[in-house]
Amino acid sequence: MMTEKFIKNEQLNFIKKQIALIKDSTKKNVPQNILAAVIDLANVKILELFPNISLDQQEMLDLSRLKTDKEYEEYIQHLSGYMLPFPRITEQQLKKIFPKHKKLKLPDLSDIDFNHLTYLSWNDLRSNKKFIVCELEGKMVGIECEFAPTSKKNLCSFCNSFGEVSYFSTVTKAKKSKNPDYYKAVGNLICANSSECNKKITNAEYLETFLKDSLGL
Length: 217
Ligand SMILES: [Zn+2]
Known about the structure:
This protein has two domains: about 10-80, Monooxygenase, CATH 1.20.1280; about 90-215, no CATH class. The chain is α+β, with helices and mostly antiparallel strands. It is about 35% helix and about 20% strand. It is built from seven helices and six strands; from the N terminus they run αααααββββββαα. The model has no long low-confidence stretch (mean pLDDT about 90). The radius of gyration is 20 Å and the shape is elongated. The chain has helices at about 10-25, 30-50, 55-60, 70-80, 90-95, 195-200, 205-215; strands spanning about 120-125, 130-135, 140-145, 150-155, 160-170, 185-190. The structure holds zinc ion (ZN). Zinc ion binds near residues 156, 161 and 190.
């Protein structure tokens, strides 16, 4: 029976992270009852990501019967077939998102794996700008940030992982009620390589809040 696609990139990353935790506990030879608890907790956390799914989908996500590396691999392989791809976007649409840039530098869209994407991002090295595009409530939105051309090892605000990050700042439209002319600049350390970040991000909440604040939505 065909089930519709229902898994987002960050959700699959989250599931992979849970499997890594289970494998880690297995390797450490923790007692059976502890391992069972780790697996139960992983199942609960995974199901919590999908509050409105069908019984078929719940069964598909259940990893309690998996034992071997091969079984975990096949499980991920199977789930990958149910991933919601990032919305197909054209160069024309990207230009519309950033109308102020008459000569907007565009990413090579043919080079991007839309199946494993939480946010689309590219850099314009000439102007030290980073562009970030993602879907918010069914609409494609984007922001631009200034970035420092140097990187260092630290935690990324988007994927919450340790890696090579750069400092990005953007002027937000978030206003304070007392002062309607107040615009605040927000800085973040974000993975310098956004395709790596998209492989690690397990939760899009921070990214979405950041874009909403920046756009004053
Ligand atoms: Zn990151």
